[in-house]
Amino acid sequence: MEKLQTTFLNEEKEFSEKIKQLRERIYDHKPVVHHITNFVTMYQCARITAFLGAAPIMAFAQEETAQVTAKSDALVINTGTLNDEVIRSIPKSLEYANAHHIPVVLDPVGARLSAYRFDFIHGLLNSFHFDVIRCNGVELLGLHGQAIYGKGIDGASSSVEIPQAAAELARQYHCTVACTGPVDHISDGTRSVSLNRGCPQLPKLVGTGCMVNSLIASYLPVAQTSLDGAAAGILTMCLAGEAAAARLSRPDQLGTFETYLMDGISQLYTNE
Which residues bind substrate (predicted)? Predict the structure, then answer.
């Protein structure tokens, strides 16, 4: 197996300057992020994209989705709430994005929950290019072809380590794989970054993975590499989460935490 150049980021200062520079570029260029995403979390994704400084748009109808992608700077594909209309729309947007080098984030939500879902996701991966696959451990190991032990769509155990699986999947699909969890592992197949930041409230808040997709997609048009964009998006969420948790009077104030999280996104490394 290829030896990876690995960086373990324990301290905010090691990446903070890069995030500052990328945020300035986002404010200058205001990239438009087209979401074909989970119906459950659309509002959260729209808010977090706007609070970072980018411009969200949601369009699902197959009659317009490619035209909307044509007016966008990045595309998010999320398979959390698939239906036949969405399944017909997604390839149309991907065809345009790939032909015009618009960066794409794929979130293969619940890839192994059903044959309907897995067959569609597998078909996408073999037909289109994705700049970033953002997933959790269960989804990563499922796409990697491993037997998974666990429940639902979160948490996994397998004979294959997550960093190894991320690097191998990145090489297989020529992309960056960003696997979020207690430790976040990001790899482009050659370089790997591990992030050990965040707070206990983030995994309890529904939609954090979807929101991270939006952050990554906002960074991708202004980042030098997809690995930089993925790391910036994930670390932004972690640091904003830490800032939000520090403001709570009790750790179980999850509704308040979400409000503070959005404030943290808008305030991170800015004077605003």
Answer: 58, 207
